[in-house]
Amino acid sequence: MTAASDSTASEAQPHAANRAVRWLAPLLLLCLSILTIGTHYWTPTSLFWDENYHVTSAQKHIAGVMYMESHPPLGKMLIALGEAVLAPNAQRDTSALLRTDRVEQAQLPPGYSFAGMRLVSVVSMIATVLLLYATLLLITGQRLLAFVFAALPALDNALVVHARSAMLEGIQLAFALGAICLLAFSLRRGGRVRLRHYVGLGTLVGLTIAVKLNGAVLLLLPVALFLADQWPALRASRWKAAARRLLAAVPAFCLPALLVFFGSFYVFIATATDVIPGRTYKASAEYLQHLRDHTTWTPSGFHAGLRDHLRYMAEYADGVPRLDVCKPGENGSHATQWPLGGKTINYRWSREVVKGVSVVEYTYLVSNALVWLAVLAGIALSCALVLGRMVFGHAVTCPRDFHWLALFTSLYLAYFVAILQIERVMYLYHYLLPLMFGIANLAVLWNYLFGDGLAAGRWQPRINLLLLLLLAAAVFAYFAPLTYGWPLTTAQMEQRLWFDVWRLEPVR
Amino acid sequence: MELTRKDTVMTALLLITGAVLVYAMWPVRVAPVLRLTLQRNASPIAHLDQTRSIIASHDVFVDRLDLSRGGRLRHAELGDIGDNGADGNLENLFLAVRKRFTVLTAGDYRFLVGSDDGFSLRIDNRPLCADPRPRALSVQTCGVRLDAGTHEFALDYFQGSGQSGLSVQYGRQDQGSNFWFGEDSAYFRFALETPD
């Protein structure tokens, strides 16, 4: 080997090492999320909470059966996709699912596997973790910080228990984080905002809303993108230039968003054409005629179907009862309790007596208290920072981080403002979307406070980050029996009742 | 300097949080002073001395006989004593305590036994007091003269249905203060049991 090639080899080694380190964090996150979210995700082998509805709806998608429901169809179509891909129940009689809107466990065929129905939610949540890492890396440029905070969703008991189910939140979060990640990419250092970024953002926001309507809070993202994009023009009062950009940006965002949202309805209406006798819901005579003629794919058929589905969704929402805290067994909770983890929900339990000692296996929606309280503290500090800047004119040390945490805090607060207008009963898992905003906010705030030390390569801020991760992992492990259905005695369960607002109740 | 101070404050905050979490998560344990033998009966219990048909039995170790809280057979730290059956109710349960204890000073003593439902108490195999039928929570005072040295405490209790609870205190007849049975005092001493 010549001297020249020696030199090339020695230069290449650090590059290779850097590349390896670059992939180490996402690889570790992938392993962690597969471990906490993916391991035996087909257990419990019984339905819980809204799975009774979503599994039923997904099976109807597979069979091409028309139904009406309170959520847009995309999430359930994706749940069905997982079932169709793995087909673990292909040899079982699942026809009972087509004749009801809420299937009971007893109606499922013996040996029914949930591996397919829960697959997409699990994969989506794992993707969410990786997207959060990419987002935080783009915003802060700190690999360790991005790793630690991206690990928090994989160590949050509430997120994990929901991700391991055939429900909509895990799927929605992947699209939401995809949208935020794209925004971070659009606004990366040295980058330039282009119209295709608006198109991508519109697509991802549309997908988020097409899973669950509460994703509409992400409509703030294109506003943020436009403000960041045109801030120099706006500051210089170049209104014409800003208006020209607005005229291009609005359709660039809105058209794909609308296309995706209504496109998912179109696929649903065009493909779900079989009507089970007696189950016409509130379909109009016109829509029923199209269903009979199998012409729901035509413009007039789609128009009739879309109108009926949207009307059904609106009427369903109006019919949902209000929160009644006096009702025995009320699982709903007021939104103001969510940041503290109230109220937990006992999704399912089974009891057995082992050597005279009663133990209960729970699937319980309970928060990782460390993560949730840290998120709340982060939001409070961010509000103080934003108010300090806006009201008292305090200097901002890192404007880029400041703008990001102002955005995440705005998303968090806007979600609550919207939710507090809703009169129907809401549940703790409606907090999972703003929780992700809160985790991202906490990461940026951490960078705002300790980023200089991290960038300087000092050991203490790194130790602090790892300490935070360790504490989050410890709390996750402590509450893991409630996430994975590991048996607990009454006394062990009572020891986990950390806050009254949780209203965690052992099964006696 | 400024950076170091911020980092140190955060380190301290995280360590304090860690200490609080360890405290909250540490398994609850109490000194194993008394062995409670719990037996679940197959049929309803109407009398302490009725024929038993035990379907499950296990031991629980507690530090004192202070097990009456909110109408439940419940320890302050350990929570409910006597796991519920598959039906979710604490019922049809026999409980027995056998304990050798040391009297430091001879004299006249009292035992205050509170129970829901019935109980019987014997000291050195001599019946001291009893109410073997179902009853609401009530406290009975039972007097006895004890010499210095070792004595045998034997308490039997049952929970039929509904609310439950059990407590035993002791004290000298000529003193006003009482102590939970299981707690050392100037008068009684209790050795630790050895869990199996």
Brief description of this entry?
Chain A has 508 residues and is mainly alpha-helical. Chain A contains 17 helices and three strands. The relative contact order of chain A is 0.11.
Give an overview of the whole structure.
The complex is a heterodimer of chains A (508) and B (196). Chain A is mostly helical and 508 residues long. Chain A is built from 17 helices and 3 strands. Chain A has a 3-stranded antiparallel β-sheet with strand order 1-2-3. In chain A, helix 6 packs across helix 16. The longest helix of chain A is centred in the first third of the chain and has 36 residues. Chain A is globular and about 65 Å long. The N and C termini of chain A lie far apart (75 Å). The N terminus of chain A is likely disordered. Chain B has 1 helix and 14 strands; from the N terminus they run H-E-E-E-E-E-E-E-E-E-E-E-E-E-E. In chain B, strands 1, 2, 6, 8, 9, 11 and 14 form a 7-stranded antiparallel β-sheet that branches. In chain B, strands 3, 4, 5, 7, 10, 12 and 13 form a 7-stranded antiparallel β-sheet that branches. The longest helix of chain B has 24 residues. By secondary structure, chain B is mainly β. At the A-B interface, strand 1, helix 15, helix 16 and helix 17 of A face helix 1, strand 2 and strand 5 of B.
